[in-house]
């Protein structure tokens, strides 16, 4: 976690007694989770979108129809630089929508996702988003597949129907059973994105669901380039799941911190204003680096927090993408 990047001069000299760690709640069964999401989330989204489900996730059209000259108001990202270079005049790519949409969920199941201090853990929030996306997409006849990376990684090939939504939930349930004491594997987002790029043959809508907390910042670990290559061929959305305690270090005195992906431990005096200020700077720097990396790859960001259900963020995200299509 990001907390481990703080300087060790702030570590408490005499650590207090070991903290009591409450038992982790059992995972909600996949079928029960789907029923809850359909009743509490998907129906609410339908009420706002009036059945226009493609307005929720669907971004730019995916099939190239023609290339035409640039007109004022056209998106810069649609400029075809090869045709522009040959003709000497700006040309843009014109798309038509596919009748059938194929979507993929690329979901982080690394140990850092087993963290949460509010409504749910990050891994559970990722499952909720995957369930909503699967229900929304498959109920209209389109296909969705899933790939997980981290302990218990696996794949569910793209199919349609409610049975496929349940298959995606079962895959995520298997990938989320590792706890804090399970194998410690650092998140390797670059390798995961490269594997996805090699796997996907048809142009698709791809959701990369992760907390995007790596030991190396964006760019240094190489995943920025892999994301850019993936976004060149597919419509990619980065879904970041986070917890308020990761964004703002609470003032709770001396606390033992453990990196779930390396096993490294240290004590921090969270009542020290200098420690909290250093953490705030680190979080700000990582946020800026992530946003720059996504903007460079022309990838949209959907932010989800463990303190609230995903309805509000999904509606705001849909409004942005629908406005862009207009």
From TrEMBL:
A Pfam family annotated for this UniProt entry: DUF58
CDD domains: vWFA
DUF58 domain: residues covered: 66-283
Stored InterPro entries: DUF58, vWFA_dom_sf
Protein name: DUF58 domain-containing protein
Lineage, top ranks: Bacteria, Thermotogati, Deinococcota, Deinococci, Deinococcales
């Amino acid at each position: 976690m990001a907390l481990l990047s703080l300087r060790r001069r702030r570590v408490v000299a005499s650590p207090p007694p070991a903290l009591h760690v409450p038992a982790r709640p059992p995972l909600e069964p996949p079928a029960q989770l789907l029923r809850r999401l359909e009743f509490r989330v998907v129906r609410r989204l339908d009420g706002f979108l009036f059945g226009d489900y493609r307005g929720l996730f669907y971004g730019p059209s995916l099939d190239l129809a023609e290339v035409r000259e640039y007109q004022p108001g056209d998106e810069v990202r649609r400029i075809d630089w090869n045709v522009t270079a040959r003709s000497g005049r700006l040309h843009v790519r014109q798309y038509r929508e596919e009748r059938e949409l194929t979507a993929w969920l690329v979901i982080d199941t690394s140990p850092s996702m087993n963290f949460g201090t509010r409504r749910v853990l990050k891994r559970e929030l990722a499952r909720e988003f995957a369930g909503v996306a699967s229900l929304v997409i498959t109920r209209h006849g389109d296909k969705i597949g899933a790939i997980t990376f981290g302990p218990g990684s696996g794949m569910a090939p793209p199919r349609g129907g409610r049975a496929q939504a349940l298959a995606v939930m079962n895959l995520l349930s298997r990938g989320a059973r590792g706890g804090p004491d399970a194998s410690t594997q650092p998140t390797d987002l670059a390798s995961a994105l490269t594997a996805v790029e090699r796997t996907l043959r048809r142009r698709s809508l791809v959701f990369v669901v992760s907390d995007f907390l790596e030991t190396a910042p964006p760019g240094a670990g190489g995943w920025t380039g892999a994301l850019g290559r993936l976004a060149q061929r597919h419509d990619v959305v980065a879904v970041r799941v986070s917890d308020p305690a990761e964004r703002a270090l609470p003032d709770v005195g001396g606390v033992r911190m453990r990196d779930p992906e390396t096993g490294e431990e240290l004590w921090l005096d969270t009542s020290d204003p200098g420690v909290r200020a250093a953490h705030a700077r680190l979080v700000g720097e990582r946020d800026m680096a992530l946003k720059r990396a996504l903007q460079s790859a022309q990838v949209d960001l959907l932010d989800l927090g463990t303190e609230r259900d995903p309805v509000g963020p999904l509606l705001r995200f849909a409004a942005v993408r629908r406005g862009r299509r207009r």
